[in-house]
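PROTEIN DESIGN WORKSHEET
SECTION A - STRUCTURE
LENGTH: 318
TOKENS:
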């Protein structure tokens, strides 16, 4: 198991809310990332590069060319953890709209964000949480007025399955039972941002600084705990990563629902339309299908918890 105290990941936060290591932090396989390199990564993130690729983003031209694509094909960018549920939605959509089809392109949310910043134009983007979607809305790629919640999530704590730590709340993470906590980069990823906010509300954010090991993606953070290289991390409950990623055995983690009041706060799986979607009508129909009650009940049956009521036209959830 990693000794987080030797990593010295005392974190500082900028006004953007993104994390910057003040000394060094470890990568997935234990190699230390030097401060200079970590700082460069952070600066690139602020300039608009999406982790983990670290590639710079070109300025969006003031006049963008029209996107031409088969009008009968909807392209959906889907966070990889949500693919099983969206395959069910795809099949239902194609059965209801003869001659229409849905192409699902999946990856980690940060990679999907990087693709869109680099010029890719899906018709819709579907992700858990709203950090990545919020960034793309503010940068002008996504139409916030079309944003809809299609499932509710809870933030939870994940421990190694064989951990003897008695953890029932976020405050317990500050105890001596836990020596290392890994999480995805806050201000960049939804899960990392939600975890940081929950720890702040629990009053333990400053107390666990020396235990933190930042990772570029939620998947990398969960893998560290599953492999016994960190004591705790954060997941959404239900944990889609356990359901969809073969590298993480289903029985490798113990999921704890915190007793803190913050545990009652709902996070959402969101769907939103790209502003340059060439198939806007298809996109609107797909959003209507996954937001309506019949399909919401079907999605609940395949692991997506009941979603909040659909928003009125032009209204975005908080």
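SECTION B - SEQUENCE
RESIDUE ASSIGNMENT:
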């Amino acid at each position: 198991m990693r000794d987080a105290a030797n990593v010295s990941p005392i974190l500082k936060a900028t006004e953007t809310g993104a994390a910057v290591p003040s000394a060094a932090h470890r990568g997935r396989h234990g190699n230390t990332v030097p401060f200079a390199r970590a700082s460069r990564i952070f600066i690139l993130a602020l300039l608009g590069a999406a982790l983990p690729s670290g590639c710079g983003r070109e300025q969006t031209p003031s006049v963008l060319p029209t996107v031409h694509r088969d009008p009968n094909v909807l392209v959906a960018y889907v966070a990889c953890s949500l693919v099983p549920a969206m395959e069910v939605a795809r099949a239902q959509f194609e059965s209801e709209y003869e001659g229409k089809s849905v192409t699902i392109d999946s990856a980690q949310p940060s990679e999907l964000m990087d693709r869109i910043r680099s010029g890719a134009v899906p018709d819709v983007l579907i992700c858990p949480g709203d950090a990545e979607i919020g960034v793309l809305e503010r940068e002008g790629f996504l139409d916030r007025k079309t944003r809809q919640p299609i499932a509710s999530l809870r933030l939870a704590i994940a421990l190694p399955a064989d951990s003897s730590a008695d953890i029932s709340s976020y405050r317990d993470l500050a105890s001596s039972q836990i020596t290392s906590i890994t999480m995805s980069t806050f201000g960049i990823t939804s899960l990392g941002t939600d975890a940081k906010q929950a720890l702040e509300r629990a009053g333990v954010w400053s107390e666990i600084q020396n235990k933190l090991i930042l990772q570029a993606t939620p998947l990398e953070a969960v893998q560290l705990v599953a492999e016994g290289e960190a004591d705790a991390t954060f997941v959404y409950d239900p944990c889609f990563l356990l359901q969809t990623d073969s590298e993480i055995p289903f029985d490798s983690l113990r999921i704890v629902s915190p007793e803190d009041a913050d545990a009652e706060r709902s996070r959402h799986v969101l769907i939103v339309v790209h502003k340059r979607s060439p198939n806007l009508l298809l996109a609107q129909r797909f959003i209507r299908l996954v937001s309506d009650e019949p399909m919401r009940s079907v999605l609940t049956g395949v692991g997506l918890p009941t979603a909040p009521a659909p928003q009125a036209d032009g209204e975005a959830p908080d």
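SECTION C - NOTES
Confidence is low (pLDDT under 50) at residues 5-63, 312-318.
The two ends are 39 Å apart (CA to CA).
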